[in-house]
């Protein structure tokens, strides 16, 4: 079964009708529903080089299921499984996954949760009005493709060595925020050495400028890739996420 999806954000290089491959999605239903009829599409990171299915995928599904939310994990195309530059394939897959999940009619509300480069993919998807998502969660996300603050490995894998200024702008999520962008929760560490916190700050500034509701948790210290940090009493940021999900979704 495939899902046909319109092109993204007026981007002529994107397929007008991408047929999504459902085998790229793994479904994790909540053993006990919380009664909210809400699901989350999880997009792990990996610098567009690989997909961190265990550390950022499996841990997220366990967290979501334990709180009564259905979860799907997207194993999108990366430099390990596809030809670089990857653009626009991962974007088509993420949008296709959203449309496919909607077609299953299992949940009434659908959010997206992305980590690092997967956070970039989630943010670009969430800012596309055609995705019609209800909320987003971004964890130490790559937001901008601008040389000043981007994660270079993610940029090169996705866009190549010399992308046009217009493509860089279109693939910078902070440049795509509108008043229709769904509410967001964003986590980052101020001293993240891999993906500078300026990525999150740029996105938050854009959300505020467009009056999009958001909550953020920026800790002073924490290495990139800590995921949920559930076993770290200092850096475990999920209590703030719990609170946000309880009152915002």
Automatic annotation (TrEMBL):
Keywords: Hydrolase. InterPro entries: AB_hydrolase_fold, GDXG_lipolytic_enzyme, Peptidase_S9_cat. Residues 97-232 form the Peptidase S9 prolyl oligopeptidase catalytic domain. SUPFAM superfamilies: alpha/beta-Hydrolases (SSF53474). It comes from the Eukaryota. Pfam families: Peptidase_S9. GO terms for molecular function: serine-type peptidase activity. GO terms for biological process: proteolysis. PANTHER family: AB HYDROLASE SUPERFAMILY PROTEIN C4A8.06C, PEPTIDASE S9 PROLYL OLIGOPEPTIDASE CATALYTIC DOMAIN-CONTAINING PROTEIN. This is Peptidase S9 prolyl oligopeptidase catalytic domain-containing protein.
